[in-house]
Amino acid sequence: MSSPQSSFVSHPVIHELEKTVAARYPLVFLYTPEEERLINLLTWVANANSVPVIEWSCTDGFSMVTEEAITDPIKAVQSVCESGDDVEASNGFYVFKDLASYLDDPLLIRALRDAYQTLRKTPLKKIFILSPELDIPASLRHSLYVIDVPPPDKQELHNLVSELVSAQGCKPLPEEVIHEMVLALTGLTLDDSYHLLSRILSSGHLSKSQLLYEIQSSKKNLSAGADCLEYIAYDRGLDEIAGFTNFKQWMNDRKAIFNQAAISEGIPLPKGILIMGVSGCGKSLCAKAIPKTWHVPLFRLDMNLIFSGTNGNPQHAFHQALKTIESMAPVVLWIDEIENGLGTGDMGKPAQSQIFSAFLTWMQEKPPLVFVVATANRIELLPAEMIRKGRFDQVFFVDLPNDAEREEMIDIALKRNGLSTADFTMKRLVSETKDWNGAEIEQCIESTKIHCLSEKRDVTTEDIVEHALKIVPLSHTMKEQIKALKDWAWDRATPASVDSGLMISFDGM
């Protein structure tokens, strides 16, 4: 499961560990769930400095001590500081696997602070604390050098894929397929990748698309550590939804360049889009249809959970969610109703203001293979800094569907309910649903079907019209708000559909 030593030479974690040696940091905190992988990386650095790696666990004590096992964490730390007569003989990288669990003990904190002073004099004797949680007492923060270990890089994953394909006795995969698999695996730990690949490869021959689908679907498990992120599985692509001609064109034009090859060639990648408009007209549908078209997973960031406090400090929860997303690139991040979490309504709250500033900075500096889709109902609540060019590549306005789009929506809704378009007078249904949104059309046909099933008879055009007359569409109940929304978007947004009420030229930006 580990990468060959030769591939570690330019490894980012190796580079960071070498910095700790050069800077003579005596205590290093490694934030990672991957013990075996980090010990392999540490071993490479240790070998380069001609010192051993000595592991410690609370069950077995030190791995290279033949005397009675020292399982007490305080005594174990103190024993590292005892060099005896031969200082060089005691040099080494002492890797404490379980020490983080005891960091609430003031005596251990004292022992570590003493170790900091003692080990500063011996640059090749260091204590490394491995932990899957970043929970460091305030009294130790200035004594520990913290490395937030990233997931495996592409070379590690490439080696793992090649190794498992060979071990499973599978037919060698084309380099292009391995490259695509590595991109899909990016963000998973080596252990998760190992188990996932073992399962996929043992199931027999799979097509390239099946391989990628299996890998991408599994990424939902990675977000389990960030409760504010929800993996969204959706089986319909852009070509399978009605309308949105301009939006589809924009997304399809860019699907071929959202990859590592484009980065290598210096092609600027799309950063993200903001979709605003009338409620129920398909903003969320647009966001959910992107992953199938671009072949990347989609995660939704719940800003309500960020601010609820259930995941701790809102700023920390937001930061952790963004770091989790970064580790899963290539990925699409969807922020629904962004105005409720990052709008001007609550900017008086310190957490709101700080998170807004952090988000703007992140949008400028985020990894290129993270694409952001933000949806909004009340665009006027978003600060001007967020919607200016440079944050989002494009702002799309989703209006009420026109006649042709409503006909397509009615056709889709009928088929979903097991009904045939040929049995209905489509022209009349289109006329009766004027100024309706897609959600209202779907709900009307569903409720009609249920009513007719209860009476044990077939659905007719008259049945749907009868139910339609009982529905007051949002365009009537929210008439003033929708008009204000259209007025705002008149010269500020690109219509998602060609034939829109907004007479704006589509510039394709």
Describe this structure in words.
This protein is α/β, with parallel strands linked by helices and 509 residues long. It folds into 4 domains: 5-148, Rossmann fold, CATH 3.40.50.300; 154-225, no CATH class; 231-398, P-loop containing nucleotide triphosphate hydrolases (Rossmann fold), CATH 3.40.50; 403-434 and 438-472, Helicase, Ruva Protein, domain 3 (Orthogonal Bundle). The protein contains 22 helices and 13 strands. The chain has helices spanning 12-22, 35-48, 73-81, 106-119, 154-167, 175-185, 190-202, 208-218, 245-254, 260-264, 283-294, 303-308, 314-327, 338-342, 350-365, 384-387, 403-416, 426-432, 438-454, 461-468, 474-477, 479-489, and strands at residues 27-31, 53-57, 61-62, 92-96, 125-131, 145-148, 229-232, 272-277, 298-301, 331-335, 370-376, 394-398, 494-495. A 7-stranded mixed β-sheet has the order 7-9-10-11-8-12-13, with helices on both faces. A 6-stranded mixed β-sheet has the order 3-2-4-5-1-6, with helices on both faces. Helix 6 (175-185) packs parallel to helix 8, helix 17 crosses helix 18 and helix 18 runs parallel beside helix 20. The longest helix is centred in the C-terminal third of the chain and has 17 residues, at 438-454. The radius of gyration is 28 Å and the shape is elongated. The model is unreliable at 1-6 and 501-509 (pLDDT under 50).
What does this entry show, briefly?
45% of the residues lie in helices and 12% in strands.
